[in-house]
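## retry 2 of 3
previous attempt timed out at serialization; input unchanged, resubmitting
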Amino acid sequence: MTLTIGDLAPDLEVETTEGRIKFHDWVGDGWAVLFSHPRDFTPVCTTELGYMAKIKPEFDRRGVKIIGLSVDPVDNHAKWAKDIEATQGTAPNYPMIADTDFAVAKAYGMLPGDVSGDPTQRTAAQNATLRNVFVIGPDKRIKLVLIYPMSVGRNFDEILRAIDALQLTESRGLSTPAQWQPGDDLFIAGAVSDEEAKQRYPEGWRAPVPYMRIVPDPLAGSR
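## retry succeeded, writing output
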């Protein structure tokens, strides 16, 4: 079954490049990003894993853990990490799941339930649907899902932007307009009543129409 926003992220015990982990315990009380890859030693994914390693401090600053996934075994992940460092300048500095039994791919709806066998005998094209990004909140529920084709490199700067927006919704009851960037004005979320909004924003808000209650970014200048 395909997972969507609001679903509980499946809690599995998995083998990673940093040892065996139980997923919910590893996420802890913070946020997490799980991003998947069809196979090791693929060119687009090589650039993505290297870029994520470079910008990991940005995720750390937001209290977000990163974990990658491919169906290859841990020893292949270790060999691939050397290629990533050689070509991208930075090796992965976060765990990579070795989903050799396809358990995570199936639980997260990325591969059909009848997939089985030796993962190293499958081609990347057979695993083309392992191109998902899941952003998971402290409540272990999925907050965002992105799916990319194998030929299109993912934009992880956009994922950081979306996390900023998600965290503003969680902590401040705010939502973001199209093309929003940190520092831009936001909307008071529809779930927040006018009475509650007056308590949170006693200085008021702009409302060009009644359902658009616009306030400045409360974290402007502090990121």
